Amino acid sequence: QVQLVESGGGLVQAGGSLRLSCAASGSIFSISVMGWYRQAPGKQRELVARITRNRSTNYADSVKGRFTISRDNAKNMVYLQMNSLKPEDTAVYYCNLLSPDGAGYWGQGTQVTVSS
Q1: How far is Cα 39 from Cα 56, in angstroms, rounded to an integer?
Q2: Which is nearest to 80 in space by CA: 107, 42, 44, 116?
Q3: C-alpha to C-alpha distance for 38 and 29, rounded to whole angstroms
Q4: Are 47 and 69 within 8 A, CB to CB?
Q5: Which end of the chain has fewer beta carbons closer than 10 Å to its terminal beta carbon, N or C?
Q6: CA–CA gap between residue 61 and residue 74 (Å, rounded)
Q7: Contact 109, 66 (CB under 8 A)
């Protein structure tokens, strides 16, 4: 059974930084694709960043150069370093695990609010 728990959200001024963390339980973390998604009020959930088991990464165009995703397989952790935050980054951020057999798992989400 996979469980994901996000932490690190909060309120920050524009231009500031936050680091989100996601702790994963279960034995498949190291062989799974990990991702961060976000959902703003009235909008669809969107991919922010993704990292493969081999640490290949991809990012949404809107966060390239500002956000960095990383993982620590020894600790079953994935991180999202967010710099130069903008008000439009305000959303609930969700951690996602995509297993090799295609099963997807979600955390409960953490709120990020960027004030102007």
Answers
A1: 24
A2: 107
A3: 21
A4: no
A5: N
A6: 30
A7: no
